[in-house]
């Protein structure tokens, strides 16, 4: 079969190459288009993957079978849809939910409990270790009430100012 004066195999192959190039470009420059189609079925990755799967299946079936081109197109579309669904369920959805940052903000430290590493003198600086799921954070600290806080004491972070945490002695009930 011919389409626009070209054999259908050539169209499938050119489409495969072109969609492959677009996928590579999207991997490198996809952050520019961040948010387009996010959370919907019109995700650019899924559209490009569908076109790639369709053209690959169509090219392979045109080369190895003698089926009608319309039947091959329908079979290729079915295979592409199935592979697209599997790609979405097993790769894209887990990746989007696993995207978690280890970054913390000063506001997120307020109200947390830490342990004093270096004693905090009156009107002086010490150091506090804050532990969480993603790791440990060591921050310079001042006593909020200008009192001495001994090493190993648990402290409650009351305020964060210019990267320095202000703490009070914390005793659990």
Explain the layout of strands and helices.
Blueprint: E1 2-3, E2 6-7, H1 8-29, H2 44-64, H3 69-98, H4 106-109, E3 113-118, E4 125-132, E5 135-143, E6 154-161, E7 164-169
Parallel strand pairs: 5-7
Antiparallel strand pairs: 1-2, 3-4, 3-6, 4-5, 6-7
Helix pairs in contact: 1-2, 2-3
Summary of the model, kept short:
With 173 residues, this protein is of the alpha+beta class.
Describe the structure.
The protein is of the alpha+beta class. A hairpin with a 2-residue loop joins β1 and β2. α2 packs antiparallel against α3. The chain is rod-shaped, with a radius of gyration of 29 Å. The mean pLDDT is 85.
Q: Determine the mean pLDDT.
A: 85
Multimer state: single chain
Structural class: alpha+beta
Low-confidence stretches: none
Keywords:
single chain, 173 residues, alpha+beta, five-stranded mixed beta barrel, two-stranded antiparallel ribbon, 45% helix, 24% strand, rod-shaped
